[in-house]
């Protein structure tokens, strides 16, 4: 099992002058370009990040995120130690299981866990032949469980440069900025009983249980209300209370909690209506709080507002130990190995790791600004084309982000 990260050798070309640098080098560089600012005066802070690239395009986009972290960290006096571990299809192929013990151990010992993607790969285009406990997705479900993360934050933020990349009209998507908070540790994904059986007619059946306890709703609800207090003060809780008992309890608990937050404006919306409203008038949302399975579906719908799933990062938080950060896309075997994957969700996930995991806002902002700048320069991957844009591959996009980080973003943008 490799522990030292080989991501440097992954093929991203860093111009020699952009190699992550020491404080001394940075101050020399800032004299030269007059732009780089480094706030490091004391010895560097250190963090250990467990990096689980996973499979498929996870192995292509993860190095971009890691290099962005490394460079932005070095500019702000932070050293990262990256421990690369196996998960998903890659773990299954190498060790026979999708979530090896070593991966769990390294994850628990880290300051934050970064996971690229899991799913089917070119080598294994279907995992239907595998028993359920060996499927690649099990790696993802297990790590979420093991870290005890129960709130999944999926920001739906539209970059102004990408307005033409969405399949929706500019008037609908412009200035959209909301946060989906998906419950991540319960509901239909984990409820018991579940399984297969035979009904009274002798037919085969398959069944799962949607079940929520009051404490499960409360803990994720609190994250939503706290976040709304930091944003525009609105929570829209999405359920299917007209039909499902689990939703009735959900709605009741969220309503009780709202009494603690008189400044927050709480509304409830049925899940089918919300699917429609996300497309009709997404600007109405600030914090959208919902269950595990509804959040899974609605976040893919909402991703299209931003240009597509290649733009959607996520943070899985709330656990007692290290938190988990994962771009939302699957492993996309159809484009694996072609260097066309969009690394922006992966890099935006690194931003979330810094912001919500390590609370290193200055580094987060640096990377965010670099992404903004790279888009300003006209670089796009092929999934987010806009008129007149330069369509580049995953590696090139990564190089441009590093260039923006190092030389192009003026320091006045950093605040
Ligand atoms: C997601 C994914 C996962 C989920 C799958 C891969 C298990 O679709 O993160 O949205 O359903 O949670
Ligand atoms: Mn999903």
UniProtKB/TrEMBL annotation:
The keyword Amino-acid biosynthesis applies. Residues 48-401 form the Isopropylmalate dehydrogenase-like domain. It comes from the Eukaryota. SUPFAM superfamilies: Isocitrate/Isopropylmalate dehydrogenase-like. Its EC number is 1.1.1.85. GO terms for molecular function: 3-isopropylmalate dehydrogenase activity; magnesium ion binding; NAD binding. It is an enzyme of class 1 (oxidoreductase). Its cofactor is Mg(2+); Mn(2+). Catalyzes the oxidation of 3-carboxy-2-hydroxy-4-methylpentanoate (3-isopropylmalate) to 3-carboxy-4-methyl-2-oxopentanoate. The product decarboxylates to 4-methyl-2 oxopentanoate. This is 3-isopropylmalate dehydrogenase. The lineage of its organism: Eukaryota, Viridiplantae, Streptophyta, Embryophyta, Tracheophyta.
């Amino acid at each position: 099992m490799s522990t030292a990260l080989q991501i440097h050798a992954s093929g991203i070309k860093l111009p020699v002058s952009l190699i992550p640098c020491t404080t001394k080098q940075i101050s020399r560089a800032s004299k030269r370009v007059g732009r780089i600012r480094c706030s490091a005066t004391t010895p560097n802070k250190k963090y250990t990040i467990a990096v689980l690239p996973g499979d498929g395009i996870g192995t292509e986009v993860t190095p971009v995120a890691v290099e962005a972290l490394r460079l932005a960290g070095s500019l702000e006096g932070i050293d990262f130690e990256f421990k690369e571990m196996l998960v998903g299809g890659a773990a299954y192929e190498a060790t026979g299981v999708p979530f090896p013990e070593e991966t769990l151990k390294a994850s628990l010992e880290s300051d934050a866990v970064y996971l690229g993607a899991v799913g089917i790969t070119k080598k294994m285009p279907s995992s239907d032949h595998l028993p359920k406990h060996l499927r690649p997705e099990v790696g993802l479900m297990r790590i979420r469980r093991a870290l005890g993360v129960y709130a999944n934050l999926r920001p739906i933020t539209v970059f102004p440069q990408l307005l033409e990349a969405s399949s929706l009209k500019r008037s609908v998507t412009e200035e959209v900025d909301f946060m989906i908070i998906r419950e991540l540790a319960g509901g239909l994904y984990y409820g018991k009983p579940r399984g297969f059986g035979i009904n009274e007619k002798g037919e085969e059946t398959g069944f799962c249980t949607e079940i929520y306890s009051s404490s499960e709703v409360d803990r994720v609800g609190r994250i939503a209300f706290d976040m709304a207090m930091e944003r525009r003060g609105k929570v829209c809780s999405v359920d299917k209370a007209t039909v499902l008992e689990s939703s009735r309890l959900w709605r009741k608990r969220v309503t009780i909690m709202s009494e603690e937050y008189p400044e927050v404006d709480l509304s409830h919306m049925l899940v089918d209506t919300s699917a429609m409203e996300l497309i009709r008038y997404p600007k109405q949302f600030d914090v959208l709080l919902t269950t595990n399975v509804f959040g899974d579906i609605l976040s893919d719908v909402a991703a299209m507002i931003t240009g597509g799933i290649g733009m959607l990062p996520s943070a899985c938080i709330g656990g007692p130990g290290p938190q988990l950060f994962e771009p939302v896309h699957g492993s996309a075997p159809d484009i694996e190995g072609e260097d066309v994957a969009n690394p922006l969700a992966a890099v935006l996930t690194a931003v979330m790791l810094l912001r919500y995991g390590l609370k290193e806002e200055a580094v987060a902002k640096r990377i965010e600004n670099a992404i903004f700048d790279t888009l300003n320069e006209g670089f796009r991957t092929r999934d987010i084309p806009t008129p007149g844009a330069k369509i580049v591959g995953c590696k090139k996009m990564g190089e441009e982000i590093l260039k923006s980080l190092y030389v192009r973003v003026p320091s006045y943008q950093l605040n």
